[in-house]
Specification:
This protein has 202 residues and is α/β, with parallel strands linked by helices. It contains nine helices and five strands; from the N terminus they run βαβααααββαααβα.
Length: 202
């Protein structure tokens, strides 16, 4: 029986990584879209050669790795360049995700993606779990974790899908406004429920 796919998302500082980690500890195969986005631009992969040919070698580090900061600086200032890059990378990232999800041996598998909704990656899933958290708490947590200032965090929040937008796509919502032990308990409760589902729907 092929595992069904759960999409797991939440804004910065929501605790989606901690939730994903606990699902993993329960034996569930998880694929992180952020890692897939890194794999596709590893040295030796065709995408990196295309990016270097397009933007020039200034976006490469001396060891041949992609200089993410340099690339970000180029595309953030220029919407056309950003579109070019997204058109190149999104299909490759999607392919990478599908390939990694295809290796799952667990009853269901999880695609963890901060941009699940915005990127359309939710279309690869049969069910969506949103880890939700009040915005002020989100800001506090992200500041504590990253040492970033409040304005930076709020800018990231503004760039991600709004809470309303995420919640509109959600089949399940985990409000993560307590401690880690509570979050893990909720993950276990959802996990037992998910084991009863066929194809992600009751």
């Amino acid at each position: 029986m092929k595992p069904w796919i759960l999409g797991l998302t939440g804004g910065i500082g929501s605790g989606k990584s901690a939730a994903a980690q606990h699902f993993g500890e329960l034996g569930i195969h998880t694929v992180d879209a952020d890692y897939a986005a890194r794999w596709v631009v590893e040295p030796g992969r065709p995408a990196l050669a295309k990016i270097a040919a397009h933007f020039g070698t200034t976006i490469l580090l001396p060891d041949g790795q992609l200089d993410r900061a340099a690339l970000r600086a180029q595309v953030f200032a220029n919407p056309e360049e950003r579109r070019w890059l997204e058109q190149l990378l999104h299909p490759l990232i999607r392919q990478e995700i599908i390939e990694h999800l295809g290796r799952a041996q667990s009853p269901y598998a999880i695609l963890v993606s901060p941009l699940l909704i915005e990127s359309g990656q939710y279309q690869l899933t049969q069910r969506v779990l949103v880890v939700d958290v009040p915005e002020d708490l989100q800001v506090q947590r992200a500041m504590a974790r990253d040492g970033s200032d409040e304005a930076q965090i709020r800018a990231i929040i503004a760039a991600q899908a709004s809470r309303e937008e995420r919640l509109r796509h959600a089949d399940d919502v985990l409000v993560n406004d307590r401690d880690l032990a509570w979050l893990q308990g909720e993950v276990e409760r959802l996990h037992h429920f998910y084991l009863t589902l066929r194809g992600g729907q009751p």
